[in-house]
Amino acid sequence: MDASGTPSGWPLDDRGPAYGDGLFETVLLRDGEPRLWAEHLARLARGCRVLGIPLPARAELERPLAEAGEGLAVLKLILTRGSGGRGYLPPTEPEPRLRWQLLPFSPAAERWETGVRVRHCRLRFGIQPALAGLKHLNRLENVLARAEWSDADTAEGLLCDSEGCLVEATCMNLFWRRDGRLETPRLDRCGVAGTLREALLARLPIHEVDARPETLESVEALWLGNSVQGLWPVIRLDDARGQALRHWTITPDHRALQAEAHDLLGHPLPA
């Protein structure tokens, strides 16, 4: 196992930068303590099983925690299959390479309080059930989707798969309340199963559903969330041209789901 806190200097034959052959986790640290650590480790372990990459020892994964100081920080763990193999053929006995990066973090607290504006993206995710849910290193679809807008007023873009089913935002999961019921897109064909999403599914009666983008125009409340930023209420939904489709006012329903999510992460609840 090659483990280092310096993400620069990858060998040219490392399969991570060469093929996206690896996984990553982005973890919120509060005074050096990782939030949702069990969920992050479980997702990483599942990704290793699917890709056939040996899972590093827990001590190796937790080594960066000793370098974190007080306050909020984000730990990015990057695990590749390492070097070797001929072309796409992976080595029969891979020697994984683990890298990490620690960065200070300040949450966008105003988005918790006042909510955000989001838009639909034109790009469609390809359907690949074998990789569904994993946080693998191939994220070019997300990069292309995020390039669709540059205005600072739009916080996120929502994506569907190639058959028109809602999946997620570019870097956050989706939740909504419809007819009094909490729902989130099913992620068995593509998308990333976020650790905050997993924790909320275990904690609350949230139903995984197949839904079209027009579904969102009739929901009572809409949120975006991930394990670093927490939960943002959505107050405006635009189409891919930036034209408004729906507005929402923040209600106690929005705050109730926020309270559950922020309790898991240690984030404060807006007044």
Automatic annotation (TrEMBL):
Judging by the UniProt lineage, the source's domain of life is: Bacteria
Any one Pfam family match given in the protein's UniProt record, by short name = Aminotran_4
Supply the EC number(s).
Answer: 4.1.3.38
Which reactions appear under catalytic activity for this entry? 4-amino-4-deoxychorismate = 4-aminobenzoate + pyruvate + H(+)
User: Molecular function (GO) terms listed?
Assistant: 4-amino-4-deoxychorismate lyase activity
State the UniProt keywords alphabetically.
Answer: Folate biosynthesis, Lyase, Pyridoxal phosphate
Q: In which pathway does it act?
A: Cofactor biosynthesis; tetrahydrofolate biosynthesis; 4-aminobenzoate from chorismate: step 2/2
Q: What SUPFAM superfamilies would the database entry show?
A: D-aminoacid aminotransferase-like PLP-dependent enzymes
Needed cofactors, names only, are: pyridoxal 5'-phosphate
> Which family does the entry's similarity section mention?
Belongs to the class-IV pyridoxal-phosphate-dependent aminotransferase family.
What is known about its subunit structure?
Answer: Homodimer.
This protein's name? Aminodeoxychorismate lyase
**Species:** Halomonas kalidii
Q: What does the organism's lineage look like at the top? A: Bacteria, Pseudomonadati, Pseudomonadota, Gammaproteobacteria, Oceanospirillales
